[in-house]
Amino acid sequence: MSSPVIIRAEGLTKVFRTGGEETHALRGVDISFAPASITALMGPSGSGKSTLLYNLAGLDTPTSGRSMLLGTDIAALNRAQLAEFRRDHVGFIFQQYNLIPSITVFENVALPARLAKRKVDPAQIRRTIAEVGLEGRENRMPSQLSGGQQQRVAIARVMASQPAIVFADEPTGALDTATGAAVLALLQRAVRQHGQCVVMATHDPTVAAQCDRVVFLRDGAVVSQMTAPTSEDVAEMLVALRGEL
């Protein structure tokens, strides 16, 4: 019996054209992801990790191919429909946090519900903030927090609405080792407790080794996959991929 699929890329291609030159960032990527799983995307710089995330999530438009989320071809949606679909089903954790600097931690976490015109449950927002280790900081402004704390707010903002799908672009990239481990633990807990599908781009073999699967890209194509990875196996694969460039 085949595993359920919550995300499917079919022939995803992305070509950037600059000054008459073409850069093939994605080359016909076919891949799927299951619910209740966490997958790391890895590869050398410029391999297409972030481009794949953005095209899967509907934050960028592929040159050809399609991204299917929860059985929906997001390319068939108009701008308003796509925004509504992402709001209801997809969370995206950006490397640079993307918090609103003029509002508090509580207001940042509650923002998706307000934008969706859903009733804000203050108790649930506070619980989510507490779950990311920021209890007592609800009324602080982003500028009053460390980088690691701001990343936790960004995660709480996504987790508060419990989307079926979470994309994360280098969520631990700018953090120290201890804070990065705590952030990864939060994502793992979301998978265990809510059955979410988490797909993250990372450059860290230690982070990747704590995922269910690692997908390796080179020159915009998927070249290998690994389940139950170890940090040593991941690091060896990255060295091999860089050696083939």
Number of helices: 8
Order of helices and strands: EEEHEEHEHHHEHEHEEH
Distance between the termini: 38 Å
Low-pLDDT runs of 5+ residues are none
State the major sheet: 6 strands, mixed
Task: Please bin the fraction of helical residues.
Answer: 25-40%
Mean pLDDT: 91
CATH topology heading of the domain at 7-93 and 165-243: Rossmann fold
Q: What is the correct CATH architecture of the domain at 7-93 and 165-243?
A: 3-Layer(aba) Sandwich
| Binned strand content | 25-35%
CATH homologous superfamily of the domain at 7-93 and 165-243 - what is it?
Answer: P-loop containing nucleotide triphosphate hydrolases
Radius of gyration in whole Å, from Cα? 18 Å
Q: How many strand elements? A: 10
3D shape: globular
Class by alpha and beta content? alpha/beta
The CATH class designation of the domain at 7-93 and 165-243 is Alpha Beta
| Spatial arrangement of strands, main beta sheet | 6-7-8-3-9-10
How are the SSEs placed, and which strands pair?
Layout: E1 7-18, E2 21-33, E3 37-42, H1 49-57, E4 64-69, E5 72-73, H2 79-89, E6 90-93, H3 105-115, H4 122-131, H5 147-159, E7 165-169, H6 177-194, E8 197-201, H7 205-208, E9 213-218, E10 221-227, H8 231-243
Parallel strand pairs: 3-8, 3-9, 6-7, 7-8
Antiparallel strand pairs: 1-2, 1-4, 4-5, 9-10
Helix pairs in contact: 3-4, 3-5, 4-5, 5-6
Which characteristics define this entry?
8 helices, 245 residues, 6-stranded mixed beta sheet, Rossmann fold, 36% helix, alpha/beta, 4-stranded antiparallel beta sheet
